[in-house]
UniProtKB/TrEMBL annotation:
PANTHER family: ATP-DEPENDENT RNA AND DNA HELICASE, ATP-DEPENDENT RNA HELICASE SUPV3L1, MITOCHONDRIAL-RELATED
Top-level taxonomy: Eukaryota, Metazoa, Chordata, Craniata, Vertebrata
Region ranges (Disordered): 208-241
Name of the protein in its database record: Helicase SKI2W
BP GO terms, sorted: nuclear-transcribed mRNA catabolic process, 3'-5' exonucleolytic nonsense-mediated decay
Organism: Tupaia chinensis (Chinese tree shrew)
Length: 1290
């Protein structure tokens, strides 16, 4: 074999190769030609051309000339190709992604190709189903709007590192010992032991000198890359440069003085401040200098708090704006939307109610342009109809995640992002939709039942939809700049408040947050939680000023003669007028006395019927109309009473002929969207008649289209009197001149109670129109009697409710987090607002733990050899005995017999911060049963001067067996003194069997007298002296403590913990008496060392517990719910989500029950109308029985659904959850099953209204929610036949 010599040649130039690259079009494909030359392209020089419009090409090819399409050709109809089996195809694996690509280099002016180079591609293996990174490629265009439950959410920063693939810290994350090895490399700088003072450490003196680089220097250089040799940073004082000295002795003395210098005490950790309060008292004079070209301008001058918020928005800060209703918080939201449009980003506005979403959509649309609307069942990407035509709105569901995901459509604007405005309820979303439409135009609406313009840059939606977007990995989150949370105080809602916390936790870091809320007392605390959660400062802008001050009145009239009985209770300056209150009481009392003289004293004073209510409202509205204080909103906390009160005012007509004509034309245009029979619905006819007379009704039982008609007419000033429920006040920006409260009591779902201050302020804030009214009028009707002054004062002037966490675990949340390996449910719980008080000091706990660890390492180990071998057991026995006695004493003080024994004269042992095992005698017991206070005469020492206390040495107390077994009562060293102390139950260490005869009142009177400076030197009375001498005699006779009451025999406590605790205490006493360590002469010194070590270890265990997952309040419930999922087969033993669990993630509500019905194939044999009727029991909120008119198959289906629900409830109870089986099954309401069944069979809606007494609005609401549920089920083809789509009956 001839070996040839290889020549090393320089690499040839690309132009000298016998090849030529040819770029084919603009697709990125290249072709190699066997001709030398420069790279060329098939495109002409210049700017790259544009491809023809695919839509126009498809229309021209397929729609304009369809004749060439072989639609009727049958030659290929019945052909069949035999599939050739290829077992090896089962083993085929997808190839690795291409790591590099060719990139053309063009001339910047002409576009001519100058060359090409190979570039490496990053993150080529990321996808929506494998990565949380924002750098992953977008999902399919069909899923860009709604996302997909199988996709990963974007990284919400639930842990310390984004993904394992992102980056590795090569300084901290490298292991010093390889896996499987016993030894490794120690990269830490070597620290020499400090020499004794005055001795010369030759190695330390020579270490700074560079003597040729020995092994130690080399290892240190390796361990400290980037540093000079021998420089180990701040590892130890020995690493400092060698100081110049004239002699070796000077150097030694300097070295010795350096060694003995005490270390500096550790600095306290800096306090992190995430919530920054903003001062709004001073005007912002340089506003237009700081922002010369604002993104949006208003026809009025913004207030100071609005300018401050705008300045922070320009800096891309997150803000929390807390202000009263109608103060102008929406100005901040409008500027954020305009700023997002200027930046070509996107905004989301979330609202808690649908009406607010609709209103904001309309308002923003009129300002910002093209509007879209998205909800669960309708997607209309078209221009919004004129205001008179209205869009088909609806209440939809107000309970939770009814939409899986929403986001940008396939036709997104290039480099465009969005603003999302979220509201907690759909009524709020609808109103904000209208408002923003009028302002911006480029606005979309997403609620549970309506979708308009999903491609808009500003999206108005409910908070549940935003949560679904986050969990489903919607691509709209990529382009998101702002999320506006309106009515944040709605987070206190027990049912839906958890949605806010989930959304705030799941939002990625690049999204800024705007929080709009009514005034709340703990705004700084809430902002601090969000700031710590997102690691960014939140600027809190709070104002208590009202743009329109309010005046609050009491109205006691009930007829035209008494319509002037209006009494001022709270003026515009916030002063409470007791004179007006007593005048109202007198007016009511005088009328009652006349009533008694006429009809007899035994007649009831108030029937509360419609007739009397009619007289009250006629007199009140007549007075308000005469004083030009219309329009008025009457808040009534019952749907039925709203309808009754509006219907009773048949003789009231508040509109002019021109207003009637305008109302008539508006109604005609809006109702033209209904079918002919639906226009004759009783509710439609009745509402039309009321609106013509200037009256309106607004509650959840009204048809959605009618509610929106009422909202629009009221905003135009054509509805003079509106009877509404509390939902109308939730952020809906439709102020009136006057607000009337039908009552100050409401039913909150469980009981009747007075209105809370926050609820009253929220509704009363609708009074007063800015720029139109000098003051707003709030009137409380006194039909039966005048409420108590204390109740009125608490309701009108009390502090609003604090923002409180309503965080709870749901199966949807658990499954959505378990299916992503990088996310943990424990991290979600750690970051909840409920865990914030215990987690906000985590940094301090970590630093304290590190300091305690160093302190523990520096402590000297106690000697536990020879005679001290049982010293650790002795210490643990003493600690356990103390804890057991404290537990028994707590049980005694919580028992009835224990509190009865603490009567006047009983001798007790007192132990608290001031007294240690001192005897005392009870002088007085408070009568408050909830918090008992025992006034006790206690022995003590004579007071000593401060200098004597400072000179007294503080010797640590070492407990001996007699001290631990007994109480070792306090005995005064000098003259005995006494004091009177108010003791809590926890201050009583033991109850003795001794009872003294004392005169408690006389002793207390004498002691309080001697506390005055004038009588301070007077001797105590004989009763005091006798009691003190008796206590001192007892203490001297029983140094280890007098006999105490036995909790089992004397106090009859039969609790198992008390009995076992007493037995354990006696066993511990025997062990302590038999300890050998106490006989050693070194026992005191070694015990002090051991106690200090054990106390530090105990504190370290407490801090570790606070920092661990075990301290989470909801951790036991989480384990119980995971066990439920594991039992039902939704997750496996390792926590991996199985098929059933992934299906349950896609369900909007009742995820376990729906998934079980699907996998049991329980609905496959039923017809579509029967399936719809059964599923209505899961979404209906009207309780009731299904009735006897249902078909037999439907009755059997109802029983089967309840049987499945019962089985799930039994699994939950078996796994330890608190919800009973009856409560879980009771969540199903089949009251509208017959109505839904007939509707699905095609019965007109006008006939459906007669099948049930349920209001028409609730029927529509049930059907809309049913449609959303059917669409979520239709996505999973597990049924024998697919579910038919559910259409809106209107």
């Amino acid at each position: 074999m001839i070996e040839t010599e290889r020549l090393v040649l320089p690499p040839p130039d690309p132009l000298n190769l016998p090849l030529r690259a040819l770029e084919l079009g603009c697709t990125g494909r290249w072709e190699l030609l066997t001709e030398p030359g420069a790279p060329e392209s098939t495109l002409p020089h210049g700017l790259p051309p544009c491809a023809p419009d695919l839509q126009q090409e498809a229309e021209q090819l397929f729609l304009s000339s369809p004749a060439w399409l072989p639609l009727h050709g049958v030659e290929h109809a019945a052909r069949k190709w035999q599939r050739k089996t290829d077992p090896w195809s089962l083993l085929a694996a997808q190839g690795a992604p291409v790591p590099s690509d060719l990139q053309a280099q063009r001339h910047p002016t002409t576009g001519q190709i100058l060359g090409y180079r190979e570039v490496l591609l990053e993150n080529t293996n990321l996808s929506a189903t494998t990565s949380l990174s924002l750098r992953r490629p977008p999902g399919p265009a069909s899923q860009s709007l709604w996302g997909n439950p199988t996709q990963y959410p974007f990284w919400p920063d639930l842990s310390t590192r984004e993904e394992a693939e992102e980056e590795i810290d090569f300084e901290k994350d490298l292991l010093p010992v390889p896996p499987g090895f016993k030894k490794g490399v120690d990269f830490a700088p070597k620290d020499h032991p400090a020499p004794a003072p005055g001795l010369l450490s030759l190695s330390r003196l020579l270490e700074p000198l560079d003597l040729g680089g020995g092994d130690e220097d080399e290892s240190e250089a390796v361990g400290q890359p980037g540093r000079p040799r021998g420089d180990t940073g701040s590892a130890s004082p020995c690493s400092t440069p060698l100081a110049r000295a004239s002699s070796l002795e000077d150097l030694v003395f300097k070295e010795a003085s350096t060694v003995v210098s005490p270390p500096e005490p550790p600095k306290p950790p800096p306090q992190e401040q995430w919530a920054i309060p903003v001062d709004i008292t001073s005007p912002v004079g340089d506003f237009y200098r700081l922002i010369p070209q604002p993104a949006f301008q208003w026809p009025f001058e913004p207030d100071a708090f609005q300018k401050q918020a705008i300045l922070h928005l320009e800096r891309h800060d997150s803000v929390f704006v807390a202000a009263h209703t109608s103060a102008g918080k929406t100005v901040v939201a409008e500027y954020a939307i305009a700023l997002a449009q200027k930046h070509m980003t996107r905004t989301i506005y979330t609202s808690p109610i649908k009406a607010l979403s609709n209103q904001k959509f309309r308002d923003f649309r009129n300002t910002f342009g093209d509007v879209g609307l998205l909800t669960g069942d309708v997607q209309l990407i078209r221009p919004f109809p004129p205001l008179g035509e209205s869009f088909r709105g609806g209440t939809g569901t107000e309970t939770g995640s009814e939409v899986l995901c929403c986001g940008t459509s396939g036709a997104r604007r290039p480099e465009g992002e969005s603003t999302i405005y979220t509201s907690p309820i759909k009524a709020l979303s609808n109103q904000k939709f209208r408002d923003f439409r009028n302002t911006f135009g480029d606005v979309g609406l997403l609620t549970g039942d309506v979708q308009l313009h999903p491609e808009a840059s500003c999206l108005v939606m409910t908070t549940e939809i935003l949560r679904s977007m986050l969990y489903s990995g919607s691509d709209v989150i990529r382009d998101l700049e702002w999320v506006i949370f309106d009515e944040v105080h709605y987070i206190n809602d027990a049912e839906r408040g958890v949605v806010w916390e989930e959304v705030l936790i799941m939002l990625p870091d690049h999204v800024s947050i705007i929080l709009l809320s009514a005034t709340v007392p703990n705004a700084l605390e809430f902002a601090d939680w969000i700031g710590r959660l997102k690691r960014r400062q939140i600027f809190v802008i709070s104002t208590a000023a009202r743009p329109v001050p309010l005046e609050h009145y009491l109205f006691t009239g009930n007829s035209p003669k008494t319509q002037g009985e209006l009494f001022l209770l709270l003026d515009s300056r916030g002063s409470f007028h007791t004179k007006g209150y007593y005048a109202a009481v007198e007016a009511k009392k005088e009328r009652m006395s006349k009533h008694a003289q006429t009809f007899g004293a035994k007649q009831p004073t108030h029937q509360g019927g419609p007739a009397q209510d009619r007289g009250v409202y006629l007199s009140l509205l007549g007075s308000l109309r005469a004083r030009a204080q219309l329009p008025v909103v009457v808040f009534t906390f019952s749907r039925g009473r709203c309808d009754e009160q509006a219907s009773s005012l048949t003789s009231l007509d508040l509109t002019t002929s021109s207003e009637k004509s305008e109302i008539h034309l508006f109604l005609q245009r809006c109702l033209a969207r209904l079918r002919g029979s639906d226009r004759q619905l009783p509710q439609v006819l009745h509402m039309s008649e009321l609106l013509h007379r200037g009256l309106g009704v607004h509650h959840s039982g009204v048809l959605p289209i009618l509610k929106e008609i009422v909202e629009m007419l009221f905003s135009r000033g054509l509805v003079k009197v509106l009877f509404a429920t509390e939902t109308f006040a939730m952020g809906v920006n439709m102020p009136a001149r006057t607000v009337v409260f039908d009552s100050m009591r409401k039913h909150d779902g469980s009981t009747f109670r007075d209105l809370l201050p926050g609820e009253y302020v929220q509704m009363a804030g609708r009074a007063g129109r800015r720029g139109l009214d000098p003051t707003g009028t709030v009137i409380l009707l006194c039909k039966a009697r005048v409420p108590e002054m204390a109740d009125l004062h608490r309701m009108m002037m009390g502090k609003p409710s604090q923002l409180q966490s309503q965080f709870r675990l749901t199966y949807t949340m658990i499954l959505n987090l378990l299916r992503v390996d990088a996310l943990r449910v424990e991290d979600m719980m750690k970051r909840s607002f409920s865990e914030f008080p215990s987690r906000k000091d985590s940094k301090i706990h970590e630093q304290t733990l590190a300091e305690l660890t160093k302190k523990l390492e520096a402590l000297e180990e106690p000697d536990v050899t020879s005679q001290l071998v049982d010293l650790p057991e002795y210490y643990s026995w003493g600690e356990e005995l103390t804890e057991t006695r404290n537990m028994i004493q707590r049980r005694i003080m919580e028992s009835v017999n224990g509190l009865k024994s603490l009567s006047v004269g009983r001798v007790v042992v007192v132990k608290n911060q001031e007294h240690h095992n001192a005897l005392g005698v009870i002088l007085q017991v408070s009568s408050n049963s909830s918090s008992r206070v025992f006034t006790t005469l206690v022995l003590c020492d004579k007071p000593v001067s401060q200098e004597a206390q400072d000179r007294a040495p503080a010797t640590p107390e070492v407990p001996h067996p007699d001290d631990l077994v007994g109480f070792k009562l306090f005995l005064p060293e000098g003259p005995c003194d006494h004091t009177v102390a108010k003791l809590q139950p926890g201050d009583v260490a033991a109850i003795t069997t001794k009872v003294l005869r004392v005169n408690g009142e006389k002793i207390l009177e004498d002691f309080s007298k001697r506390q005055q400076p004038k009588f301070k030197k007077d001797p105590p009375l004989a009763a005091v002296t006798t009691a003190v001498q008796e206590l001192l005699r007892l203490a001297q006779a029983h140094p280890a403590g007098p006999p105490t009451l036995d909790p089992v025999n004397d106090l009859q406590l039969k609790d198992v913990s008390v009995v076992e605790g007493g037995l354990r205490a006696r066993k511990l006493e025997e062990l302590i008496r038999g300890a050998q360590c106490v006989h050693s002469p070194r026992f005191p010194a070694q015990y002090v060392k051991l106690r200090e070590r054990m106390q530090i270890q105990k504190e370290m265990e407490r801090l570790r517990f606070l920092l661990s997952d075990q301290s989470l309040l909801l951790l036991p419930e989480y384990h119980q719910r995971v066990e439920v999922l594991r039992t039902l087969g939704y997750v496996d033993e390792t926590g991996t989500v199985k098929l059933a669990g992934r299906v349950a993630c896609a369900m909007s509500s009742h995820e376990l029950l729906l998934t079980e019905l699907m996998f049991d194939n329980a609905l496959s044999a039923l017809r579509p109308e029967e399936i719809a009727a059964l599923l209505s029991g899961l979404v209906c909120q009207s309780p009731g029985d299904p009735g006897d008119q249902l078909p037999s198959t439907l009755k059997e289906g109802v029983e089967r659904v309840r049987a499945v629900a019962k089985r799930i409830g039994e699994v939950q109870v078996a796994c330890g959850l608190n919800q009973t089986v009856e409560e879980f099954v009771g969540e199903l309401n089949f009251g509208l099953a017959e109505v839904v069944y007939e509707w699905a069979r095609g019965m007109p809606f006008s006939e459906l209204a007669g099948l049930s007494g349920t209001p028409e609005g609730l029927v529509v609401r049930c059907i809309q929610r049913l449609g959303e549920m059917c669409r979520s089920l239709r996505g999973h083809r597990f049924f024998g036949q697919p579910l038919h789509p559910v259409n809106d009956p209107l």
